Amino acid sequence: MHPTYKRMLAGLKKEKFSARRKKTVNDWSLYILRCRDGSFYTGITNNLERRLKMHQDGKASRYTRTRGPVEMLYSETCGDRSSALIRECEVKEWPKKKKTELILGEGKIRITKSAHCAAKKEKLSRRAVTS
User: Fold this and answer.
1) Domain that residue 52 falls in
2) Cis peptide before 3 (omega within 30 of 0)
3) Low-confidence ranges of the chain (pLDDT < 70)
């Protein structure tokens, strides 16, 4: 794992969340988008519909702003924000072939315990990857 990610994740593990704001276990999700040029974008959010609309409108990230329109291919529930960030770092390091296997659900991908994800895969469209 890249040293920058290691430092970021170490800081997240030390973080204490505010008691004022209570979140449920399934608030944060990891998602993978396919851009117009065929590249994948991986991110996290606590509201998939809103985030997809932001990507479509060009208001979410610099990467997808110039590569729109985007199409959501995959999402999984990761629990809290820290777990989602850890999982995002893990998936972002994978080659495109491994991400495609995850999207297609070919069972070759082992979801690690370190990710702390519930791993409730929501396959959005198998046909979208092949078209």
Assistant:
1) 25-130
2) no
3) 1, 5, 12-26, 106-131
